[in-house]
């Protein structure tokens, strides 16, 4: 894994574009039915108001001591295998993060909040 230290300022200058690309990629994925903020509320509650940041439905990005962290909350289609779908989404999101920030440590939490009917 990469040893590059990621600062908040590194993420801030590309965050809006990156979040939009992640949302677009997720919504075009045939296994994703919808994005939902339901699963990421515990991660972002109060933080957005305190710092005046906007929150995108189902996508939250931040840095911590380990690197860039993406929390993704999705509803999958009824034919999706949950584990395999989550792993595939993690890989796609990590690639997008590394396109924008280089070879950085990144972690993706995929929170499946439901399966569509």
Question: What is this structure's SSE topology?
Answer:
Elements: H1 8-12, H2 15-28, E1 32-35, H3 41-44, H4 47-51, E2 59-64, E3 67-76, H5 82-101, E4 106-115
Parallel strand pairs: 3-4
Antiparallel strand pairs: 1-3, 2-3
Helix pairs in contact: 2-5
Task: Describe the structure in brief.
By secondary structure, the chain is of the alpha+beta class. 41% of the residues lie in helices and 26% in strands. A hairpin with a 2-residue loop joins β2 and β3 (67-76).
Describe the structure.
The longest helix is centred in the last third of the chain and has 20 residues, at 82-101. Strands 1, 2, 3 and 4 form a four-stranded mixed sheet that branches. The protein has helices spanning 8-12, 15-28, 41-44, 47-51, 82-101; strands spanning 32-35, 59-64, 67-76, 106-115. Helix 2 (15-28) runs antiparallel to helix 5. The chain is elongated. With 117 residues, it is α+β, with helices and mostly antiparallel strands. It starts with 7 loop residues before the first helix and ends with a strand. Helices cover 41% and strands 26% of the residues.
Describe the biggest sheet? Answer: 4 strands, mixed
Order of helices and strands: HHEHHEEHE
What helical percentage do the residues reach?
40-55%
- Rg from Cα: 14 Å
User: Which range does the strand content fall in?
Assistant: 25-35%
Query: How many beta strands in the DSSP annotation?
Result: 4
Terminal-residue CA separation: 39 Å
| Structural class designation | alpha+beta
Overall morphology: elongated
Question: Quaternary arrangement of the chains shown?
Answer: single chain
Our count of helices gives 5
Low-confidence stretches: 41-47
Q: Could you report the average pLDDT, rounded to the nearest whole number? A: 82
């Amino acid at each position: 894994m990469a040893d590059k230290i990621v600062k908040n300022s590194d993420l801030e200058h590309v965050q809006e574009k990156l979040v939009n690309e992640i949302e677009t990629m997720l919504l075009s994925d045939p296994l994703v039915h919808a994005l939902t903020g339901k699963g990421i509320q515990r991660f972002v509650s109060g933080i957005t108001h305190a710092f005046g940041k906007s929150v995108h439905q189902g996508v939250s990005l931040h840095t911590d001591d380990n690197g860039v962290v993406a929390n993704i909350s999705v509803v999958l289609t009824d034919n999706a295998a949950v584990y395999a779908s989550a792993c595939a989404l993690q890989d796609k999101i990590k690639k997008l993060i590394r396109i924008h920030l280089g070879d950085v440590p990144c972690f993706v939490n995929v929170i499946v909040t439901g399966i569509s009917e």
